[in-house]
Design goal:
The complex is a heterodimer of chains A (151) and B (651). With 151 residues, chain A is α+β, with helices and mostly antiparallel strands. Chain A is 17% helix and 44% strand. In chain A, the strands form two sheets. In chain A, strands 1-6-2-3-4-5 form a six-stranded antiparallel beta sheet. Chain A has a six-stranded antiparallel beta sheet with strand order 7-12-8-9-10-11. Chain B has a seven-stranded mixed beta sheet, sandwiched between helices. In chain B, helix 8 crosses helix 9 (215-221) and helix 20 crosses helix 27 (591-603). Classes of the chains: A alpha+beta (151), B alpha/beta (651). Chain A binds chain B through residues 19, 23-33, 35-38, 44-51, 53, 57-64, 66-67, and chain B through 60-61, 63, 65-66, 69, 91-92, 94-95, 98-99, 212-215, 235-236, 239-240, 243, 261-262, 269, 273-276, 278-279, 362, 366-371, 373, 470, 472-478. The complex binds guanosine-5'-diphosphate (GDP) and magnesium ion. Guanosine-5'-diphosphate binds next to helix 1 and helix 4 of chain B.
Chain lengths: 151, 651
């Protein structure tokens, strides 16, 4: 499953898949070590959310999301549900958020360990299937559900 | 014998530190011909020979996508240097080796690979197999530390040895890129080998660069090899192959570190780039720079001013009269008022040096980058603009730390619109005279307008010069490090001394010219050439409601903005700050014109010191002239708008 580098959550790692920057920037980015097959980690977002510091090799580079969005990566380990493509089977590994939110989810049976699949992710709403039942939630909520892709 | 050496490497690996250590104070800072990138040259005598060094801009690749890269590459490929020293950081050798490979591909000149900050590698328990690397790459390797001085002598010896015995550097380094690419490379090299104009280049390198779609090389080769099909992703393939070699080298010759060398940096960054603390800390640091530059320096500046006052008093007793006036009012007064900036500038550069060398500058840019993104420039220019509220001269000089040259030009030409402190006395006089208890609001609105104009100027210049392409913000975050005192002093001196040179040349000449205009032909200001010039241009400001005394004062204001007040006082024959000065001013213009005058002073021609700085920073008079025209047009139009709108509102 491939996402854009700027979507990689803080603290997560990924493997670089493709670099689709315009030629001029591409040479520099490649020279800095953003090579397909290498690991990249999103270290930290700036206080105003953009840019983000990434780590490649033993090296830290700050990229704006306008550039990072042209680098495609395959996350290693858990990612927020909202980044997950449709129709891929995942498992919930963590739920971030306040107690009310957690209780709400648990009351309808959404909890750590459950299998989950996104059916549709459009217009800021997200419909998903958990254990055969279909739910619709907002993107904000979906970013608090952390999942792991099942192969 | 004389040996020319180019120092090349990634940014932040210690090139400048090594260069300072090697050359000490025997260095010269200039510009690369025709561009605004600083060029540093220096030399060292070693064992009876002269070794000249040039510090190339930091680069990651030998592409020519940015000005810095182009300069570094031209020096390596076409330059006159005999030897190329590639400097790598011992803790991030991956990038250093990547650059080395590219240089070895590009040139047949002797290359020495320096692994710097070896002190840090030792501390981290990293062991590097020097002999192994030398054999694998066929390139001499030297370990150095700019901190402890280790390896400096060995490097000098190695330079002489390589220079005198080129045969030991008969290296044959060819990196193979896999069957498909090799086939194409062969085809291209064959094709260009038939062309005489490429005979002095390394053909294989030209071919590789062609495949990497290097804009320059593609242009010159495209009609020779129009029919060669370039497979997709060949650029990535080439980089991957190089990195493959780099990983092999690292695996075979460099051991892992025994602890995380980033742990301290990460801890500091946790605070300095913190989600909530990051911006307040940045603003606090900015406030501190501003405060120190303009307040701690104030007593020193006063001392210098007092000295020149005294000196000018001594010379004013000379005869004949015109000579006394030339020396005391013209030269000593003029140059003296400029030299009062010296403490500001040296203190500023000391602090800028500290922030840059520690690595905080990249963080500062990172923290505020988003704000500047909308203006199509990066966070780096923010600091320069803030400094502009104090004085345009250090603000413009501080743009040196910017890497992107387009961004630097836009910043440098927009800084004069930021209302510097010298303009305040003018605002105070006018606002105090005309706006009574609203004076504060009037002054505030001029400041506000100055910010608006600056923002518009940034956008407009970007659009005009650079077609509105945002400068990408791809910035390395180096490890935090404690700078050495030597580096800071060299930084302060080499940057600050430019200003002293200017005071002795261009500013001296300008002050003499201004003096001449105000003294001749009769010795009476009211009748001088300057006054005639003022009367001559006055009709242009008729709509504004400025009389000839105002326009003449504005002409004098070009030497320094605060002079507008004192020359007006002289012209009307009143004491500065006296009630009669206010009365005369009140009787000669109305309040709408008064506000227009404030706006005009805010925007029009930067002072001589600023113009001279623009010239020396860009290396070309063109930009000073551009700045004069540009600011005057803006000032004229703005003040005109004030008058027209003001009148319309009243009626
Ligand atoms: N510990 C250590 N620090 C170094 C060494 N060389 C440079 N530095 C520090 O690294 C930082 C960047 O050095 P600089 O010379 O500006 O790098 P440049 O960008 O390559 O010119 C400065 O803070 C230096 O004090 C070294 O050999 N050892
Ligand atoms: Mg440097």
């Amino acid at each position: 499953m491939v996402i854009k580098l700027n979507e990689l959550p803080e603290g997560s790692k990924a493997i670089i898949e493709r670099v689709e920057l315009p030629e001029g920037l591409r040479e520099r980015i490649l020279g800095m070590g953003f090579i397909p097959g290498k690991m990249v980690e999103a270290i930290k977002k700036a206080p105003l959310v953009d840019p983000t510091v990434y780590k490649v090799g033993n090296f830290r580079v700050s990229l704006r999301s306008s550039e990072a969005s042209k680098i495609y990566v395959k996350p290693i380990g858990p990612i927020p549900l909202v980044l997950c493509p449709t129709n891929v089977m995942c498992r919930i590994v963590a739920l971030n958020g306040g107690r009310r939110f957690l209780n709400n989810l648990k009351s309808v049976g959404i909890d750590v360990g459950r299998r989950i699949k996104i059916l549709n992710n459009e217009f800021g709403r997200l419909s998903m299937e958990v254990d055969g039942k279909v739910y619709t939630i907002g993107r904000g909520m979906a970013s608090k559900i952390v999942v792991e892709v099942l192969r | 014998m004389k040996v020319d050496v180019a120092i090349c490497g990634n940014p932040n690996v210690g090139k400048t530190s090594l260069f300072n250590l090697l050359t000490g104070s025997r260095q010269r800072v200039g510009n690369w011909p025709g561009v605004t990138v600083t060029k540093k040259e220096g030399y060292k005598y070693w064992k009876g020979h002269e070794i000249r060094f040039v510090d190339l801009p930091g680069t990651y690749t030998l592409g020519a996508r940015s000005l810095d890269e182009k300069i570094a590459r031209d020096a390596i490929v076409n330059g006159d240097e005999d030897i190329i020293v590639i400097i790598s950081d011992s803790l991030s050798m991956e990038r250093g080796l990547y650059l080395l490979i590219q240089v070895l591909e590009a040139t047949a000149k002797p290359v020495i690979f320096v692994i710097n900050a070896i002190d840090e590698a030792k501390r981290a328990g990293i062991v590097i197999d020097k002999l192994g690397l030398e054999r694998a790459l066929n390139v001499p390797v030297v370990f150095t530390s700019a901190l402890t001085g280790e390896g400096i002598e060995e490097l000098c010896d190695k330079i002489l040895e390589v220079y005198s015995k080129p045969s030991i550097n008969q290296r044959s380094f060819i990196l193979r890129y896999g069957v498909e690419i090799e086939e194409i490379l062969q085809k291209i090299t064959y094709r260009i080998s038939e062309q005489r104009q490429f005979s002095e280049y390394n053909l294989r390198w030209l071919a590789i660069k062609f495949l990497e779609s290097d804009p320059e090389i593609t242009k010159s080769l495209s009609n020779v090899i129009s029919d060669v099909r370039i497979p997709e992703d060949v650029q990535i393939e080439i980089s991957s192959t190089r990195y493959q070699l780099v990983s092999n080298l690292l695996r075979n010759f460099v051991s892992e570190s025994s602890y995380d060398v980033w742990s301290v940096s990460d801890a500091i960054d946790h605070v300095f780039t913190h989600k909530y603390l990051g911006i307040p800390i940045f603003l606090a640091i900015l406030y501190m720079i501003f405060k120190v530059t303009f307040e701690i320096a104030a007593p020193l500046s006063d001392l210098i001013a007092a000295f020149f006052d005294w000196l000018s008093g001594v010379f004013s007793r000379l005869s004949p009269n015109w000579l006394a006036s030339l020396l005391s009012d013209g030269i000593i007064g003029g140059v003296g008022s400029i030299l009062t900036f010296v403490p500001n500038i040296f203190i500023l550069f000391f602090m800028m040096g500290f922030l840059e060398e520690t690595g905080y500058f990249s963080r500062a840019a990172f923290v505020v980058d988003r704000l500047m993104y909308y203006l199509k420039i990066s966070g780096r220019s923010f600091i320069s603009f803030i400094l502009g509220f104090g004085c345009s001269v250090p603000a413009i000089m501080s743009t040196r730390v910017m890497e992107d040259q387009r961004e630097r030009l836009v910043t440098l030409l927009s800084i004069p619109f930021i209302s510097c402190s010298a303009r305040l006395p003018v605002y105070v006089l006018i606002a105090g005279t005309f706006f009574g208890k609203n004076a504060g609001n009037a002054i505030f609105s001029v400041y506000f307008l100055s910010i608006v104009v600056t923002v518009i100027s940034i956008l407009a210049l970007n659009k005009l010069f650079f077609k509105g392409v945002p400068s990408p913000f791809i910035v390395e975050m180096p490890r935090y490090r404690m700078p050495t005192a030597k580096n800071l002093l060299v930084y302060m001196w080499s940057n600050g001394k430019h200003f002293l040179q200017k005071a002795g040349t261009i500013i001296l000449v300008s002050t003499v010219v201004i003096w001449f205009l105000s003294y001749f032909p009769t010795g009476d200001v009211g009748n001088s050439y300057a006054a005639r010039l003022g009367k001559f241009i006055q009709p242009m400001f008729k709509v504004h409601g400025f009389d000839w005394r105002v326009t003449t004062s504005l002409i004098f204001g070009i030497s320094a903005k605060e002079v507008v007040v004192s020359s007006y006082a002289t012209l009307v024959g009143a004491e500065e700050g006296s009630p009669s000065l206010m009365n005369t001013l009140r009787s000669s213009i109305d309040s709408i014109s008064a506000f227009a005058l404030m706006v005009f002073v805010m925007a029009y021609i930067p002072c001589f010191a600023t113009l001279a700085t623009i010239k020396s920073e860009t290396g070309s008079l063109k930009y000073s002239v551009l700045s004069i025209v540009y600011t005057t047009v803006v000032a004229y139009i703005l003040s005109l708008i004030v008058v027209v709108v003001g009148k319309a509102l009243i009626t």
